[in-house]
Amino acid sequence: xxxxxxxxxxxxxxxxxxxxxxxxxxxxxxxxxxxxxxxxxxxxxxxxxxxxxxxxxxxxxxxxxxxxxxxxxxxxxxxxxxxxxxxxxxxxxxxxxxxxxxxxxxxxxxxxxxxxxxxxxxxxxxxxxxxxxxxxxxxxxxxxxxxxxxxxxxxxxxxxxxxxxxxxxxxxxxxxxxxxxxxxxxxxxxxxxxxxxxxxxxxxxxxxxxxxxxxxxxxxxxxxxxxxxxxxxxxxxxxxxxxxxxxxxxxxxxxxxxxxxxxxxxxxxxxxxxxxxxxxxxxxxxxxxxxxxxxxxxxxxxxxxxxxxxxxxxxxxxxxxxxxxxxxxxxxxxxxxxxxxxxxxx
Length: 346
What we know:
Layout: H1 17-26, H2 31-39, H3 43-49, H4 61-109, H5 114-148, H6 150-155, H7 158-187, E1 193-196, H8 197-207, H9 209-214, E2 218-222, E3 229-232, H10 234-251, E4 257-264, E5 269-275, H11 310-320, E6 324-331, E7 334-342
Parallel strand pairs: 2-4
Antiparallel strand pairs: 1-3, 4-5, 5-7, 6-7
Helix pairs in contact: 1-4, 2-3, 2-4, 4-5, 5-7, 7-10, 8-10, 10-11
């Protein structure tokens, strides 16, 4: 039997019969028989409770147990749907990221065929767009359905809905950043604007707050005393900050802390440092940490999985706009990464 989900609504003392009928409509064939077997009740009685053919509220303890068991089955299926969509997106990202890295490395190593390689990369980019749109749109539509149907919203724990909303927003913004950067690279277009570094950091922290809350991790942000403005590519800036934050949360154990600090660095540069409380980076990974051609995906403290090329992509993106990224410290007590952004790219 599947494990019950946490955060099920508190105990009720009565249920409207119309609601019981609506719950039955969400069940699948054979569910009512399974509920009867699990609770040790007669199948006929379960059908009667979920039939909604009563004129007064349902108050019987066993009847409410039946409704709550049905709700739990529905929640489990919602959870499975979310996991399925997330796994589809992760598989697409992993497969396409590897294809893209091979294509880009091929263009760099064989300049005579660079134009042909770039055409192939752009074709691949459009294929990725096609692959990503379907699961992302499906994910977004599902969340909108939950938000607009009060009956379903009543069944979904607020923490789960909050996490779903942040996940889809994070995925959409992540993909938009990648798409814009790759288009700029292939078409040699410039995407620049003037923006606040502080706002870029706080926005990234908000996007990943659900992930941190899920692991009971606190994010401590020490902002620069200066009001730092960048004239650069905002998508690359946010992508790098999100990636560093995501990794820090991923490798920090439950109940730990992630530290973020911003400030001015070398002349013409701003810096953002992110420190985690993980176990450090293994020595065998260090030499190829920023190598885009080598996939080195590792699991987080709650088995979170990534594409394995995030840091390498960050370095490549930053180098394109005159920035850089460094591993400042790695020890059994945690790691510190610092990203350097040009104050005025152009």
